[in-house]
């Protein structure tokens, strides 16, 4: 079976979505299916990777969101899909790519929308007072346009279920080999924290919807209570400069590392912290928080988000903007270190990527171990992908469509 996945907002430095796409695509390939990923880029390109063929089509930057691009040329994308002749389409953008559900229906291709974000939550934070009603209308249209909606948590599925739309729930996973407690590094800890300091970690994009100021408020509250705490922030985003200025003005010991390109460095950092903070109130899964748990570090999360159901008893949920996070951090630190690290790892082990791959393939109606045979749909043979053998060929075919 040829599964063509289309996603926006996948930048070279993007995090959770890029990670999920990579692991799911590699899983599809390993299960004997053919995975093709289409994403926006600076220019057209075609590459073969572990997760299958990756095609970039030119897409403009979105102003003010930190380097993300989007696929806006519908004609070119539709022409590329006609060349590929997919058996299934998996869409990871419920806004600018929602039209693909209708395209797939016209071409007799089953479509699946993966809801990686909460429209209800975004409108609650930034939208009008009537945001819930607007979300219900738009979510109803999204569900009607696609054959299946996949959400990764109960929290994420609630906005569809309340309007009577069926949802398939499939959790994401974590790389349990890359993220391990034994990657803890005393030499890394000593770069930012003294031997008696509590090392806090904020790992994520520094953008308004992630509420990174809550992590600074938690640090400030802990220090006011006499806790020798320092905060390391791993991640980039539009709020970085403002957060650095605020931390300096308040005399807070915060180290801003920016984007870390070495995955093993990230894993060592997550394993070396005492407690991590994931304060985003509209997270639909929280992949970074799960990776931190796999590294043996407990996490304090927002009670407003989906993360409480992901972290289970391996962390704590906090409400509000700061004081609740202080109490939660102190509570976690009151437990023996070995016990809290073991609890974190045990919770993460419930989420292997293999289970996610099986769940997504089941949602596609594809067996996890079945090899694709030509003829899943009329005309769905290898020729479609072979024609997309290079950027020049792809552009020529798309231009004729």
**In the CATH hierarchy, what is the superfamily of the largest domain?**
Glycogen Phosphorylase B
Report the top-level CATH class of the largest domain.
Alpha Beta
Q: How many individual β-strands? A: 14
* Helix content percent band: 40-55%
Order of the strands making up the biggest sheet: 3-4-2-1-5-6-7-8
CATH fold-type name of the largest domain: Rossmann fold
Poorly predicted regions are: 370-393, 395-401
Q: Report the sheet-strand fraction.
A: 15-25%
End-to-end separation: 24 Å
Main beta-sheet annotation: 8 strands, mixed
Name the CATH architecture of the largest domain. 3-Layer(aba) Sandwich
Q: Quickly count the domains.
A: 2
Oligomer: single chain
Shape: globular
Number of helices: 17
What is the typical, i.e. mean, pLDDT? 89
In angstroms, what is the radius of gyration? 22 Å
